[in-house]
Amino acid sequence: MVLQKSSDLVRINARRTDVFDIFNFKHYVGPNPYLDIGALVFDFALVDSREPLPIEDYIAKIGDRYPHLGRQSYESYAHLFAQVVSEVGKLDMDLHLNRWSVKPYPDFVRISVQSLHERTTREVAYFVWDWFEAITQDEDFTFDEQLVRLQNKFRASVYGGPTVYALLRTAYEKGIPAFYLWEEGLMQYGLGKKHVRGVATTFNCDSHLDSEFTTRKDDCKAFLKTLGFPVPEGDIVFSEKEALAAARQIGYPVAVKPVVGHKGIGVTADVQDSKELAAAYNRALAAIPEDQLTRIIVEKSISGSDFRLLCVNGRFVAATERRPASVVGDGYLTLAELIRQENRKPARLDTPTSPMSKIQIDEAMELYLEEQRLSLDSVIEKGRTVYLRKVANLSAGGMSIDATHTVHDDNIILAQDIAQHFQLTCLGIDVMTKSLSESWKSSNFAILEINAAPGVLMHLKPSEGESVDVPSYILETFFESGTNSRIPIITFNKISVEELQATIDHILLQHPNWTIGAVCRDAVFVNRSKKVLSKDYNSNVQTLLRHPKLDLLIAEYAEDILNEEGMFYRSSNMVVLDNPSETEMMLVRDVFDGSTVVIRKGNDISIRRRGLIEDYSLGEDEPFTRVYLKETGAIF
Fold first, then answer.
1. Residues in domain ATP-grasp (predicted)?
2. pLDDT tens sequence across 496-526
């Protein structure tokens, strides 16, 4: 490909020393003229007054960081740039963003890169641009430091939580439509009457009463006890004095934790005496939100290991052992240095998809080290393992070890019996026992608490052991396949309000109980009821697909809408094109196998249906509506 250059007169963003220029950014939430998926699209050019290094020099430098890219050949600088943006866009987190395209124009090249979050992808493009320019100038480039900044940006986005991203990735792989509802702060999976909405592993079909009940650890514990399940003896206290009295009555060691809490925050296990109890009480107190009453649980501390049993739709699917953060001495380094060394391991990148978080140094750690007659300055003898916390808090650097295949049948039945008492899609059951391979009926087994919104990363990416594909179990609860997550969609490149109403009426004659959503540039309907039309065209489409009763969507996507906004959804069951432009022909690109495509060019009609093509000409005074209305029956 001939090198594309921009003259000094049209230089947009390039700085004085730059040899490349990127400009004209546009973000599409879905299929667009350049990619059949959400993408960031921008223009790329070489600055006319400056010469880049040979492309091999850039490939060599990039190959040092991404060896597989260094082994490839590239048609142009633009192709190299596009693939590097795509690769960096995965953020070393194995994000599923791997699609890109390059389209040449006379004065520039248009690059399209698959995108989930506009701000992050745009910053990735600028990051790669700075990297290319640093290579040109033979300057140092703080790649890892800047990549961490990008990871943190993505982590702070609505898609960056590990559970949300894992579900989103799985939905993409299964062909399940998924998008974020900004006004509601929820993810939607599926379309129309097939859809579910949720936050992480909590969904709109879950009982909010059951979900709230699990946060009341005292009441929940009492309920489990009435069912005959093993729970540790304990009490609710409202002051440090009451905590001391409760501990004396129960007998040390005890565990202390706030009634309302999550992620192990404020939890202290194995409290041995009144001095430790005072510190544990204060940690629990500090973890209670300001708008909550002071209520703290003091209960018998059970010896053993910490396990999470996970049930989806009332069925046991995974078990994980959680161990406190630890380091192994080498005879030379202090504990603080061992922690720093451990935190540099790739497994502790502390991204949304890392198997482990970085080890956190705080007061709880230092107090526990004191109990072991250690400090951060202690040098640990070679081979000795030092545990840094009493509680296996994964967010503070703990380890997760898959234990799914070790669980005794009695413990599986126990977990399922508990889960089936709650109308919740996902339920995490935290237990303490020496081994899950022994029945709870004959071992020191205790249920510590249950969680209505359990995370999935500990099962999906354990520190040790096999991965359990929990996101698939969750989404398969709602959808047997990607096809089951969708409603039929008919897409037009142009349709008038009158034609839209006629199409609705025609389909309602065949399916009188259906709810049909329809939108064109001039109106929005639910059946024949006219609704408010938003200036943002795709927001109309989203609102209809959010409708929990919708059986069918009819939507118009003309050239100007495709160029400005792109499509909201992928793939149609029927596409009707009336004298389409080249851009509007992209609608034929995004269809299912077996879809019907009707194209009119002048009086010539072409119908493609289940691999067959039928061509004919319209009769005199024969309306086009007669052609496509006849075909609607084939998609239901």
1. 221-479
2. 999 999 999 999 999 999 999 999 999 999 9
